[in-house]
Each structure stands twice: as structure tokens, then as C-alpha cells.
Prior knowledge:
It is a single chain. By secondary structure, the chain is an alpha/beta fold. The chain has two domains: 12-229 and 430-454, 3-Layer(aba) Sandwich (Rossmann fold); 244-428, Glycogen Phosphorylase B (Rossmann fold). The chain has helices at residues 21-36, 74-84, 86-99, 114-121, 133-140, 142-147, 181-196, 211-220, 251-257, 277-290, 316-319, 332-336, 350-359, 371-381, 395-406, 410-430, 435-454; strands at residues 12-16, 40-46, 60-64, 104-108, 125-129, 201-203, 225-227, 264-268, 294-297, 324-327, 341-346, 363-365, 386-388. The strands form two sheets. A seven-stranded parallel beta sheet has the order 3-2-1-4-5-6-7, with helices on both faces. Strands 10-9-8-11-12-13 form a six-stranded parallel beta sheet, with helices on both faces. Strand 12, helix 14 and strand 13 (386-388) form a beta-alpha-beta unit. Helix 3 packs parallel to helix 4. The two termini are 29 Å apart. Uridine-5'-diphosphate-xylopyranose binds at residues 20-23, 25, 130-131, 244, 248, 268, 270-273, 297, 329-330, 332-333, 349-352, 355, 370-372. Belongs to the UDP-glycosyltransferase family.
Amino acid sequence: MQQEAVQRNGGRLLLIPFPLQGHINPMLHLAQILHSKGFSITIIHTTFNAPNPSNYPHFTFCSIQQPLSQTQDFLDFLLDLNVKCTTPFHDCVTKILSQEPVACLISDAICYFTQDVADTLRLPRIVLRTGALSSFLAFAAFPLLRQKGYIPIQDCKLEEEVTELPPLRVKDLPMIKTEEPEKYYELLHRVVNTTKNSLGVIWNSFEELESSALKTLSQEFSIPMFLIGPFHDYFSASSSSCSSLILQDQSCISWLDKHTPNSVVYVSFGSVAEITETDFLEMAWGLANTNHPFLWVVRPGLIKGSKGLEHIPSGLMDNLEGRGLIVKWAPQQEILAHSAVGAFWTHNGWNSTLESICEGVPMLCMPCLSDQKVNARYVSHVWRVGLQLEKGVERGEIERAIRKLMDDNVEGKEIRDRALKLKEEAKLCLEKGGSSCSSLEALVTYISSFTFQAS
Ligand code: UDX
């Protein structure tokens, strides 16, 4: 996206991301999109996982101090953040409001603590939901799913269909592993309710992709919905990496340049998923046995209880003769846009899923937790642009699935064709008159109405 010479007359917006990579990326993209429409931007962020202000000289950054650490249990981290950030956030916003008028607050849906603060300060609050509408529908259905006995999940019912949320099966419900499920239900209840009580929801998705979920949600939520995604497609692949918390290893690109089109499997599980050492070894052998080159992101912390690559089978990489490249963190969007990449083995975080859809790269789905499970089911059974590993992580199944996606066969070709078609739809929605382009115009008008009230 070009930084247009736009007059800053849209008013000031306060944006607060949830401090994990998969949430920071879309929030900072949204900030850039709204800045290009004439709004002034202040990012309020935690000191933990703080974005780099020097990558955004045109924004103001305000940091709120709080003792957070991601080393604790994931659920406790989410709950803790919502408690510890309330007072510093209130103080920060109060100070900003004493200096200049603010049009509205845009808060990540997971930061539900912002609702009370916004209400107290009479600040209009819009929510950014960084995930898909389809997974949010499943979160919103938790009370019903509990009432109907789908949740808590029983192992004997994993394959059963959830008739209220087709095509989900019980095992596709967005659960996390926790000893304290009540805490998780309470968290979802708060996220869903404070989203419902906001003045509108911005989605990093597009209407053509999720029309059915949009219809249902619009009936359940009587607030405006703005589907203005895919956010990252407003920017060039190389320029949209400013929000990366980890340095991206650019050596992958020259390595990819040496490979023929659609020959490489790209493997990455995002910023929070963990796998066991046993699964890691099956993955390594499965990849090696396909004979396709692979580029694999193994970030520190991916393998439970390990900091690095000490579990790579001795000799495996040597025997591959350069056919495999492992890096700690990669320029993912550039990789997915590279002609050498023929498939993406992903955990189906929403950003990864959407980035893959936008590049027409078929997916091998291996969801680990929460919304990833819903996303994977939609990829394999609604949009049908990928396959899901259904029988655990086993080298034979991995090899078969990758061959199906990449080699010459009818099913693989159909998946690849659908992926290319969906890529075209994603491109069209951002063009003038396209659904996301029109929705963005509507959002700008909507926010500007708050500006009028505030000034
Ligand atoms: C988390 C949740 O796990 C996910 O389910 C939810 O939808 C969003 O928040 P994460 O696991 O990090 O996100 O996955 P994802 O949503 O895919 O986001 C990862 C981001 O990091 C993507 O934008 C991706 O391009 C980027 N990335 C990933 C890199 O820049 N380099 C890498 O090597 C890997």
C-alpha cells in the first residue's frame, strides 16, 4: 500500500492489539489501512511483545506497563492480561483524552477488559476480531453446545457431527487443552459478550469466503459487521513484515529461487503451537520420504520441552543433500507468494490460512488448538483447498497426503484448481466495487460519524 498524501482529517483512533504475533500482524495492518484513509493512529500496547515503533514513524505509540510473561499457561496468560492491563489502560486513555479528542477505540476482541474502560470514559469502541467468522460462530455457540452435551468433549463422540454447526464434527470444536475448562468457557463468554456490546466488528475476512457465517452472525449480533480483509493483501509481501516480533530469515528466498515451480513444501505452525518430539520425528521422516524439497520453520518452543533442533534425527539432513531447509522464523508471506512453493503444511492459524488462500497455495492441515480446528475443517470441507491429516501424525499418512496435494492425480488437481479460483476471488474483493473495498468505505464513514460527535 502506498502511503498516500492524505490529509489527516479523519480524527484520532486508538488501537490496542492483543500481544501475540497472530493478533499484532492484523491490528498493525488495520492501522496502516485506516491511516491511508486519513485517520491519525495511536497504538496502545503492552511492554510484553511490543511492536517496533521505528517501523511505523507515522504512528504514535503508548506503552502500558504490566508484568506479563508468555511462559505461564496460555489460558492463564489470556485471563491475567485482561486483569492486569485494565488500570494502566484506563490511565493511558484518560491521559490521551485530556490532550486531544479521539474518534474511537479499536480493540482486539480478546482484550475484553477494554469494554468497561471505554464505557467509563464514554469512548466509542469497535472490535477487531482477527480470526474467521466461522470460528467465532462456534465460540458464540458454546453455551448451546454445552447444553446439548457436545461439550465437555467425550472421546467416544469425536467423529459425531455437530448438526447445529455444519460441517463441524465434535473434534473440530475450538477447544484448548486445559485442566480448568470452566475458565476457558468464561473467557469465551466475555469475549463474545463484549464483542456483541461493541459498536461494530471489523473482520480480517471477505464476504465471498464466509457469506453463510456472515448471514448467521448478522442475525445473532445486531451491530454492523465490516469484512474488509484480507488485510495483508493491501500491502506488498515484503513490506507487510514490519510487525514481525522475530527476525525473519531471508535466506529462504534465495534457496526457493533455485527450485522449480510448485515443487517445495512449506511447513510452519505459527507462533504459539507446540508439538511433541514424537510428532516432530514423524513429520521429519514423512517430509524426507516424499522426495519433495521442503522449507520448515522450527521456531524455538515449537517442540515441547526443547529450545532448538536437537531432536532432528542424526543424518537426516545430511542424507537430503540440500533438499530440506530449516529456519527459525521466515518471511512467510513472501514464501507463500513464491512460485516454487506448491503446498503449505500449516496449523491453520487464521492469518496463515488466509495468507495461503490469497496465494492459491493448497494446504495440508494439522490444527493444534482453538480456532485452528474450525479453520482446518473449512479448508478441507467447505472451500476444499486442502486436506486434513485425520489419523494423527504418522509418516506414511504424511507422505500420502503431500503426494496427493502436489503430484499428478485427479483429486490433487481439483484441489489446486479450486485454490487458484479462490485466490482470484480474494483479489477481486479488494478492487474498486469489490466487497471488502466497499465495506472499508462503509467503515470509514461509520468511524467518521464518531469523529463528528467527539469534536
Ligand atoms: C494465533 C493463533 O494460534 C491462531 O489460531 C489465531 O487464529 C491467531 O492467533 P498463530 O498461531 O501465530 O496465531 O498463527 P497465525 O494466525 O497463522 O499467525 C502467524 C503469523 O506469523 C502469520 O501472519 C505469518 O505470516 C507469520 N509468520 C509465521 C511469519 O512471519 N514467519 C514465520 O516463520 C511463521
